[in-house]
Amino acid sequence: MLSYPDGKLLRDGRPHRILAGSLHYFRVHPDQWADRLERLAAMGLNTVDTYVAWNFHERARGRARFDGRHDVERFVRLAQDTGLDVIVRPGPYICAEWDNGGLPAWLTGTPGMRVRSSYRPFLDEVARWFDDLVPRIAALQAAHGGPVAAVQIENEYGSYGDDRTYLRWVRDALVERGITELLYTADGPTELMQDGGTVPGHLAAATFGSRAAQAAGLLRARRPEEPFVCAEFWNGWFDHWGEQHHIRSVESAAGTLGDIMDADGSVSVYMAHGGTNFGLWAGANHDGTALQPTVTSYDSDAPIAEHGALTPKFFALRDRLHAATGAVAHRPLPADPPLLAPRALPVVPGAPLLDALEAVSPAIPSPHPLSFEELGQASGLVLYRAYPRLPRGTNELTVTGLHDRAQVFVDGRPAGVLERETGTLAVEGAGERVRLDLLVENQGRINYGPLLGQGKGVLGGVRVERRLVHGWTMHRLPLDEWTPEEVARAAAGAPPQGTAGFATARFTVDEPADAFLAFPGFGKGFAWVNGVLLGRYWEIGPQMTLYLPAPLTVRGENTVTVLELERLGDRVEIRDRPELGPVEEYVETFE
């Protein structure tokens, strides 16, 4: 058990330093959990920490899953088999650049819901979820012979609110369901954040990327009876579509880790292994002006790369950790994973965009356009259709409350693209009715800040000049919920035509191995392998390849299916290295 009498961290009564690395089981294929944990331990770490993403487990209310990819208990036991302690961060909110900060869309879409507060309907839902989750974690605590050594109370709450009643409720909810190990909070190293997020009587940790001595000084001035713990050391950073690939130099990352060690601190390297936002689980930020959707890769310039390779940063951080602990024996290093040989795969066009999407889902009628939440859909696309009369000449088409991106078609022909920030488009009319299609994409739910929980789809109305358009039908397209059979049916649902829609490519494998897929000539879309959705691709970058884990390939023939929204290319390429885009160094300083 971890304790800190007299401000010194102890484990079972002996001096101890937490040397943790963040690794999220929901961002790694379960067949690769053991491998990634071995790599983390080989870096000189003694602990793994992971969030628990509520929406990943309970996509539909009352139907939580803890099997297969969702088997967090198996992940924790594998960590113990690797010789690692485990820190669990159950939220209910996690941020993590994960869709909706881990909160289910059905929850935040409930009319009147007030999340991350002592609002009773929210607490009731968290209590029901914790009834299922927390006893599973409690049974794996160190007190019961398991590896769970600490559990976090909420997550960086001081960056969001100051409802202390809520924080105490979360603490009590964990304790009442069996948590007896160390409880702690984690917040940025500022007075504002520490004031809002800490709980009296429980360890206050900090999250930061630089200025370790300054953070240590702040925490020790406020809590002199506690050890200095960096709950997240940001040795890299994540990426948004349309920006550059964020990196942090080896020297900078190793230097700040050394500063934490020199301050006699404990640390969790965030991320030790980032993994992948498979499917449509990537979240988004908002800078006050525009949405910033997060890319599919969560490589995060981590010391263990997205596909498990050991980077120069791995060896530099390992050296700093060993120097701090005095370790002389190095754990054996796993070999880098094998990769498929590069090749180009000819593309066979399939069903065209609108025809395919119309065919795979029944039409839902409504006088008004319905949001994703009203349609009972968390992610993916919705095809909206109406038949307004367009007066002669140029007309201003306006979509209010568009979240997030709409391709506009008039009588089946592309008329333009609307973003959240540019909801108006000029369309030509001839005094006749037209078929107006809006293909609306949810680009990821905001995971951080006051806009957490916003809805998706058309949240307002659609106007031709000042006149509202009524009489809509909607086609639900939850791409990440489709089965492999549904993906195959959609791709073959109509004769090929046009420049956008489905396409397939095939390749054979003698022995399953990792790979990276590239889409030269394609514009924007989604890619499946053997019916499993890898994620989004987008020519604006920075990410230009999608990681394909070996367990998703099979001996013999494999099928790549692409849903291209704008412009099909003529080939998909298998590559043996990632292309994450032009780089830009980023170090968070809390300026």
What does this entry look like structurally?
Strands 4-5-6-7-8-9-10-12 form an eight-stranded parallel beta barrel, surrounded by five helices. A six-stranded antiparallel β-sheet has the order 17-30-18-26-22-23, with helices on one face. It is 20% helix and 30% strand. Strand 8 (182-187), helix 7 and strand 9 (203-208) form a beta-alpha-beta unit. The mean pLDDT is 97. It is an alpha+beta fold. Helix 5 (120-138) runs parallel beside helix 6 (164-176) and helix 9 (250-262) runs parallel beside helix 10. The longest helix has 19 residues, at 120-138.
Strand content: 25-35%
Question: What is the rounded distance between the termini?
Answer: 37 Å
Biggest β-sheet strands, sense, barrel: 8 strands, parallel, barrel
Q: Summarize model confidence as the mean pLDDT.
A: 97
Poorly predicted residue ranges:
none
- Report the strand count: 38
Shape: globular
Largest beta sheet: what is the strand line-up? 4-5-6-7-8-9-10-12
